[in-house]
């Protein structure tokens, strides 16, 4: 299934400026008419459930630790609720699928492996022995979504516009962090996974 994710990424490569390459519309993209037909009351219920997941103590701490928003900026979080909707998840399924969906969003959008930090938060202190469980959960989500992983910026903006003043949509990654992975790897030669048991190093940028 990781090969499938790599293939999906290849379909939507970025150019040298970090922008998505122009291409013909894909069946994976959201249909605007389908968006308009979506029940507003259902949208509100889904969004409220999503926000409750973010404000849950464990997820709240996770987001707080990602203070540079390298793996959970507003666009990656918007992709999570979009994935939930594409998979047709019930709102009571949101909590258990948050980390698998966020991991998948990072796989699709991010070039570097900061997403590994998700493992201990999703799986606990035995994550090294059980990390295949997160892949299994991600794969189940992929199947329920029909492999529709591509999300354009307009779709993210429309989702955020449903509740434009929520704090989740203030998680804007700073522009200087666009080059942070290159600097980080050159200076440290690696990436340390901290998880909920340890404090993250202070950002040096």
Automatic annotation (TrEMBL):
GO molecular function terms noted in the UniProt entry: protein kinase binding
Pfam families: Spy1 (PF11357)
UniProt keyword annotations, A-Z: Cell cycle
Region Disordered: start-end pairs: 16-42
PANTHER family cross-referenced by the UniProt entry: SEEDY PROTEIN A/C FAMILY MEMBER (PTHR31545), SPEEDY PROTEIN C (PTHR31545:SF2)
Family the UniProt entry places it in: Belongs to the Speedy/Ringo family.
Protein name: Uncharacterized protein
